Each structure stands twice: as C-alpha cells, then as structure tokens.
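Form P-L/3: holo structure prediction, ligand adenosine-5'-triphosphate.
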Amino acid sequence: MLVREQFIANFKQVPSFFRVVRARKKYNSPSQLGAQFSQGNSLLDSPVIQTQDLTKSYGSRVAVNHLSLTVEAKQIHGFLGPNGAGKTTTIKMLVGLLTPDSGSLKILGMDAAGDKPKIRQRIGYMPELPKFPKHLTGGELLDVYGRMYGMSKEERKRRAAELLKMVGLEGRGRDKIGKYSKGMQQRIGIAQALLSDPELVILDEPSIGLDPVGMVEVRDMVKGIVKGGQTVFFSSHLLAEVQQICDHVTIINNGLTLFTGTLEDIAAVAMPSRRLVLEVQKASDSVLQTLKALPFATVEANGNVYTLHLNTKDDVRADISRAVSGAGGVILKMQEEGGGLEDAFMSLVGKES
Ligand code: ATP
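OUTPUT (holo model):
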C-alpha cells in the first residue's frame, strides 16, 4: 500500500509514457501472446514498426524528415546517428509521446500515430537516461509498473525477481534507486522495459553510463530478448556495439535517412575503405609491380609496407600471399583494415553534412 501512495505522490515525476499505460488491459503473459499468434493473428505478418515519410519539426527546425523505416519481427535493429540526428524524436513518436506532423506510423500493423494506449501496452520502452523516483527501491519500482500493467501480485513478484536477476541487480532490489549508480539505474530501466513481456522493446541509448562489463551484459540481454521471440529497436552512438548486436541498422543525420538495411548491405557502402596492409621482409620493385598488376586492388607503397585498397568483397588474402611469394617476397604481416560499420557511418555522415 505504501508503495502505491508513494507512487501517487510522485506521479508527476513518472514519464508520461507510463501514465497512459495504466491497467487498461490485463497483462498478456508470454503464453497468452503465443496463443494469440498461433491462432493466426494477421498482424503477425505486418512489420513490427513501419513508418512512411514520418516528419516532425520543432518550430522551424525539422528534427525528423520523411523517415521511412521498416523493422520486421525478431530483428535487433540499431538506430544510429550523430548528436541531434533525430533519434530520440523518432523514438518518442514510435512510443506515442510525440505526435508526427505528417507521414504514417504503424506498430504491429496498427496505426500508432499519437496517443494509442492499446499499442503502448505492447511496447516496452526505456527512455534515454531514465529518471525514476529516487525514494523507491528497485523492487518497488517494478511492482508499481507491474500494477499499471494489471499484473497479479504473484506475477509481479515472480517477474521482478526474474528481471532483477537478468539485469544483474539480484540482491539490490531492496535498495533505493537514489542509491543506485548510473549503470544500475540503466539496468532497472531495462528491467521495467521488459516487465510486461512486450512484443517490441524500444531502448534509447541503453548503454549510456555502463562500464565495459555492463555493456557486454546489455549486449547479452538484448540477444536474449530476441531469442525469446521479441523485437528490439535501439538507438546508440556506439558503432562497435551495434555491429556486434544488430542484424539490421538504420542511420540518420539531420532527420534524414542515410541508410537502412542489413549489416551485410552496409558492407557494400563501407567497401571502398576496405584495405589490406602488408608488411614484407624487404621492399622490392618486383613485389610492387606484382601487387600493382592485381585486378582487385590499387596499391600504395611506403618502404616495405604496402597498402592495398580493395575493390572486392571476396577474401583475397591467399591470392596476395601467392603473388608476393611468386615475386620472391616474404610476408611478415597482413592486416585487414576498414570496411566496417564505422567506415560506412563516417562515409555516409561525412557525405551528407
Ligand atoms: P542525441 O544523440 O544527442 O540524443 P538525437 O539524435 O536523439 O540526439 P533529437 O533529440 O531527436 O536527436 O534532436 C533532433 C533535433 O531536434 C536537434 O536539432 C534538437 O536540437 C532538436 N530538438 C529536440 N528536442 C527539441 C525540443 N523539445 N524543442 C526544440 N528542438 C528540439
């Protein structure tokens, strides 16, 4: 009871996303959702997120400009962009905290533009740097949200224990959130986003404030969510992290979409920067001429180090090795550089700005 009173007293501090979620519909356990799916829910065929020309301005500033985005079920979809690109504005539209100026927005096949509590019931959302009432304990916080989702007491207790363990806060559920570190606050934020077992989990910068161990744990958590059949859409600045977790990625800048597709697709964007750096025992004209004759690379020589700028996606290391030894050279080191998400990101964002 105390928890409820404390919550009501601090109701205004709770992000508005959660105010409208309040027990309008009973919590769907994973098995209920599974049953719903197996009955042939036609919405199952729809993308989990689909936007067409989604646009939002603040006064004269266009924050999101005709964004067309498709996220299919069970994807881990990374949403990337530099500061001020429009990621949070997009996410706020997805979860109904902002109403788009124009364009269409569908979540789980339903029109989701504006205030749609029924859709929000099916989304788990962690805002960027969540601010929770500091006087509540982690366990109390999950309990309060569980009540809003209409979960039974037993369900709330079971789920809170499960999630506290999952996010690495086992044994800390009775500590006040005011005493949590930044990383622990992120973790309890992730736990509340997963509480109702939502079909879609939207995380705004989930790794902010986490140490390297925490980041690895978040990575594992996100992978675990998708294994459970859910879909994850999350924004991040951390390219390496996105590359390790995501199967799909959308990159925006200045509100415009620069790329949306799979990680393999983006390799094509990054390909021009893919290179192999060779160190040979001794510089020689014959090695240089042989490398220059290779059809899949252009060569830059610097003493006994040759940088081959590749124009192929194939693994050509064996061909290079054969060519160099055929020319009487000995390779001391061969290292692949570039061609990753970071190169693609820099090349797209650099071109656009
Ligand atoms: P970051 O990575 O820094 O969090 P972001 O990609 O999430 O940035 P947004 O917060 O969506 O970007 O901001 C997009 C643009 O809209 C920026 O130019 C920002 O200054 C502007 N903006 C965001 N919120 C508001 C607001 N409430 N009022 C006016 N302008 C805003």
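COMMENT: The CA atoms of residues 16 and 44 lie 28 Å apart.
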